[in-house]
Each structure stands twice: as structure tokens, then as C-alpha cells.
Amino acid sequence: MANSSAAGSARRSSRADQLAGDxxxxxxxxxxxxxxxxxxxxxxxxxxxSGRTRAETNLPANTSAPQI
Length: 68
Prior knowledge:
Blueprint: H1 2-39, H2 54-58
């Protein structure tokens, strides 16, 4: 009985360590991703300075964007 209790305790400790490591890795990715996007000047919604979406810029006839 004592052996199974010790083994269960060891498994729980090991899993807690794994969860802590996973959480630290996810936090690290979450903190650095916006910085990487900013450094690479990536825009996900609008082209830089245009005020139009990527679809409107690339193929305006296929959208409701006003024709210029």
C-alpha cells in the first residue's frame, strides 16, 4: 500500500512539474509573439497607411470598397 501511494505521489509531482514547464513555455510564446510581429512590421488587418483591408487593396472590384 505504501509503495502505490508513493508511486502515485511521484506521478502527481511529475505531472505538476510538467504543467509548470508547459505554462512557462506558453507564457514565453505569448509575450514574444507581438514583439516579433512588430519587429517584422506585419499587419494582420490593414495594409500600412492605406486604411483598406488586404482584400480591398488586392482586388477592389471583388469587394464593396469604393472605386478610386
